[in-house]
Amino acid sequence: MRRPALSGRAPQDTPAGLGTYLLLSLTFLFAAFPLYWMFVIATSDDEALAKLPPAVVPGDQFLVNVREVFSLQDVYFAASLVNSVIVSTVVTASVLFFCSLAGFAFAKLRFRGSNALMLLVVLTLTVPNQLGIVALYIVMGRLGWNGTLLAVIAPGLVTAFGVFYMRQFIVNSVPDELVESARVDGATTMRIYRSIVLPAIRPALAVLGLLTFVATWNDFQWPLITLSGTDYPTSMVAVSDLASGNYVIYRRVLAGAFIATVPLLVMLFVGGRQIVRGIMEGAVKS
Amino acid sequence: MSTTRAVPPSPHRTGPERDASGAGDRSPGWRDRLYRFDLRYLPYLMVAPFFLLFGVFGLFPLLFNGVVALRNYRLDDPTLPYWAGLANFTRLGGDEDFWNALYNTFGIFLLSSVPQLLLALVVASLLNRRLRAQTWWRVGVLLPYVTPIVASTMVFSVFFSRSFGMANWLLAEVGIGGTGDAAIDWRADKPHAWIAIATMVNWKWIGYNALLYLAAMQSIPRDVYEASAIDGAGPWRQLWRITVPMIQPVIVFTVVLSTIGGLQLFTEPMLFDLNAQAATGGPNGEWQTIAQLIYKVGWKDLNLGYAAAMSWALFLIILLVTGLNTLLTNRLSGGRR
């Protein structure tokens, strides 16, 4: 049975029909609903949450709930937001700097053993760090860093993915001739990094920066282990603290969760194009 | 590895000659030495931070974990003999909690990874059309990806609550379960708890995987489709007969990713628990995963040595399952390797 509609165009050249838009809208609703409902609960009072059918429109209690979240004594919510900003910013800056530097060296500089070292980077890509978490705790204990932000920052300062991604990007986007001619003109390696490489890789820095920031902000297991019970939680640990105890007040928990999610939604809104590109580029290159 | 690299010109060969030719009022060679350092040693300095930091905080803990696993490392009892030999490992065999957690981990993994990747494939093929506002559809499916798992798990926790949860209400509307005493208790037994947790995992990762597939789909040569249209393949057949085999390497990649991630599931089962701090995964460990059990053994029971042994066991399990899944996926998605 032959379908006349199919002209042999590749799917990506075929205009989407109504059905496609409908199904995509459903997908979008599925993706967005929990976020919307988070806001609904965060704006409701206890009564609205204890009835059937469940509330589906936002209430007017958002400020009340938020004030409660910030005033809880042993949760340190305000401090936790500051901590998350510090941790995520430092980690992101460090990943961008060290990974682009290493990526540049691997992509454009000649040094003995560079191929072997790059292979090592690729191999470490697949190592699930989480499995060394017990020993990491002991190491941090020796350093005296457990319970401080240092314990959360230090393991994130570099990523194998970052080096790999930067190297790929620099190989393709910085012409060898440009590096060569800069050398002939007497530019040092660091000068070349600053004036040629950095401007050329700005898009890749945006992508890696966004992905790193999101991942660091959302990290939970390790911060929970090393920071819980201290006065310096990250926002994720603080939200989980809101949900501990015998009687959990969900409008509070989700008000906190909502506040801790907003920065990321803003980033997705502003940098969505970059995040999408980063994920898709990562797929093709792997 | 790359084949084209900038060949640095070598002025440090011509440099000394110039110096030797007489104009020696400047210090003879420091510039030269600087140049040599720049070319020969600086690259090592540039890659050193990565290897140092990764070595100290990534690789070393992983290896040191093996040593800790052979020790009596209890935070609450430092008087035990230093070495435990293989006691921590042999204890695993008879530890019901471990086997229960392993069972839960695999149950939740199956319920989450299979629908996740199949639905991602469908979403990707929806996105793989000429769309208006194309970027925004792609950004839209990434909403779950940027949402903290801590936050979304709390939402789903309310969603699956027994008395006033939306899941029970929706199901009652279509005649499943009910309200009041007939309401489903999502935290009472394994199947329900597993489904609830798997729902969270699916929600989080479908969009991300869809974008990975989409990227691969768009790099399929267009003439492949021309040929298939002549054969009379419909869109559905096209997806399974052409697209899936063509993007097979990425499918294998996502299977590896979701295996590694799924077997280390931690946050969802932790916070689905009404008493999260206990890390028991339900009153009788209905949904306690291995990562969660490691946390409980290490930081609630304070037995770091045993937790380390468990981490190693999990590591081996992940290696094994990843290998197996890779083989299986290769077969199923029609690869010829």
UniProtKB/TrEMBL annotation, chain A:
Gene3D superfamilies associated with the record: MetI-like (1.10.3720.10)
Q: How does it sit in the membrane?
A: Multi-pass membrane protein
Q: Which residues are listed as membrane-spanning?
A: 21-42, 75-104, 116-139, 145-165, 196-217, 249-270
Q: Name one GO biological process term.
A: transmembrane transport
Please verify whether the record's keywords include Transport. yes
What keywords appear on the UniProt entry? Cell membrane, Membrane, Transmembrane, Transmembrane helix, Transport
- Provide GO CC annotations from the record: plasma membrane
Residues annotated as domain ABC transmembrane type-1: 81-271
Subcellular location per the Swiss-Prot or TrEMBL entry: Cell membrane
Q: Does the keyword Nuclease apply?
A: no
Provide the primary localization.
membrane
Q: Which Pfam families match?
A: BPD_transp_1
Q: From which domain of life does this come?
A: Bacteria
Family named by the database record? Belongs to the binding-protein-dependent transport system permease family.
Name of the protein in its database record:
Sugar ABC transporter permease
Q: Which organism is it from?
A: Micromonospora wenchangensis
From TrEMBL, chain B:
Region feature (Disordered)? 1-27
SUPFAM superfamilies in the record:
MetI-like (SSF161098)
Pfam families recorded: BPD_transp_1 (PF00528)
Q: Name one GO cellular component term.
A: plasma membrane
- What residues does the ABC transmembrane type-1 domain cover? 102-325
Transmembrane domains' residue ranges:
41-64, 106-127, 139-160, 193-215, 246-266, 304-328
Query: Where located?
Result: Cell membrane
What is a biological process (GO) this protein takes part in? transmembrane transport
Q: Could you tell me the membrane topology recorded for this protein?
A: Multi-pass membrane protein
Family as reported in the entry's similarity comment: Belongs to the binding-protein-dependent transport system permease family.
Give the protein name, as stated in the record.
ABC transporter permease
Q: What is the species of this protein?
A: Micromonospora wenchangensis
